[in-house]
Amino acid sequence: MVKIFVGGFPLEMTELELVQMVAPYGDVCTIKIVRDKKTKICKGYAFLEVADRHGAEQIIAALNGTMLGGRQLSISIKEDEPVVVKPRVYTRLRRPDEPVKARRPRRV
Q: How far is CA 58 from CA 52, 61, 75, 77, in A?
């Protein structure tokens, strides 16, 4: 699966309308329109997952830069960021006969 960024579409556009616009060029598996957390208003961009890279490239070639509702579409493949592995931090284990240290109470 290939993740695609789609930006610049009209704010009132729904998921179904966006999929119908892209579907002739590639098979869409998932779609996520990014919305404001409080107001639920569309921010004007979305992420789509397409079945294969060839379909993603067809979508970009056909729709990138086109005008839709007075706005210019911006479509690109979103490359995954490399996973950073953090080193583990080991703590000293307490011996069974060692007393447990009392902790200070938290402030309220």
A: 10, 5, 11, 11
